[in-house]
Amino acid sequence: MRIRVDPDRCQGHARCFALVPELFSVDDYGLSSVVGDGAVPFELEEKARLAIANCPEYAIEELAD
Amino acid sequence: MARRTAPVRDWSEDFDVLDAGYIEDPFTIWDELRQTCPIAHSNRRGSNWLPTRYEDVTAMAHDIEHFSSVEVGVIPVAVDDPEEPLLPYGLPPISVDPPIHTWTRRLLLPWFSHRRVESYEAMTRGLCSQLIESFADSGHADAAENYAQQIPVRVIAQILGVSADLSDTFTGWVRDVLEFADDRERNFSAVEALFNYFVAEIAHRRQNPGSDLLSELLQTEVEGAEIEESVVLGMAALVLIAGVDTTWSAIGSSLWHLATHEDDRKRLVAEPELMPLAVEELLRAYSPVTMARLVTSDIEFKGCPMKAGDKLLMNFPAANRDPAVFEDADKVVLDRQHNRHVAFGSGIHRCAGSNLARMELRVALEEWLKRIPEFRLAEGAELTWAGGQVRGPRVLPVVFP
User: Fold this and answer.
1) Kind and range of the H or E element at B278?
2) pLDDT confidence bin for B185, thresholds 50/70/90
3) How many CA atoms lie within 13 A of B248 on its CB side?
4) N or C, which end of chain B has less CB nearby within 10 Å?
5) pTM for the whole thing?
6) Alpha helix (H) ranges present in B340-392?
7) Inter-chain contact A11–B354, Cβ cutoff 8 Å?
């Protein structure tokens, strides 16, 4: 599983970071990004889906392999 | 605070957000409107539109071309001299559109970043526990006035670098601005007092700069020039006004829920690891804030003939109860997994203080439940709720062993 945060959609709600800090980082302006190259370790896949399902801006996308 | 207004004939064409019944229980009215007239209209206080569906509220929030933020007050705020207003830009960035919005927001955001908010947590926790100690042994408290109301104002005072001794005064001003907006005299004298207070604080900081938000704004240059003082004033007033009533309402509503829903209270005590999800769920179910937008040009939106100058009430609280988006929308599910709530708004005006609000709500609930895991509403308690721009309990008597 690979995910990314669309910087044009992200408005800095930081819901992803609050729920899954292992996968996301936020800058001082609230803009979120996926840690590393976007690859989600197997054990965090469920949490990645949780982040996707909680983003109010639909800014987190799962990338096709 | 609920006042007497003429009874509502028909919620779809004569709604009144200050109706006492609506303030106490808007949920059933929204449920009905979503089915029958998802964008209601009213001519009370000007021509206003009230969307109740998630899809519509978020679409409007993103359409900044047709829906401007220059008028965000749900109830029109008393204006001073319209030719020479005290604050020509209002309270940036909330009350402006790009481009002013963009740079003023960029200046504020780092003060409320995750990293910065973490540094306020220990102080918030100490404050909460100190407040609880003051009433824990007595077996009763007003969870709104003695607790919720006392927390955010003190945290904000620290960020602004102003004296926490003035907390009660700040709280009074903020309530007069937001909750008593239709009492023009009360409203205007609070706006004036707040304005004069910050004018004096700014003069002081020009001489004695500190490391607070106000001092930093005064020393910041934008495109080679100092920021206009009226913009600094507006930004300072915004931080105070937006950071106080709102979070205190969220804390109060959450405590009201736990006082009246024994199962949820017990579950949260037994499973404290649920807190991050529970906080989001309580924010969804009891979203305190409604913001307004001004229609910039005639537009037909979902069949509604909106005119330039009409106002939209961005009903984020109703959006968050929309069953098209949330399963069992009217039920609090502490560990709700799918929760794209918009309690902090949607689009470019997402609440700049959302990290702070979320931390304050979590810490306030954690500290309360740690010390007072069992509590309920006092027998025969008379609750009062504020509504309009910000909904939350103002009198919330609870008892505990």
Assistant:
1) helix B275-285
2) confident
3) 32
4) C
5) 0.95
6) 354-371
7) no
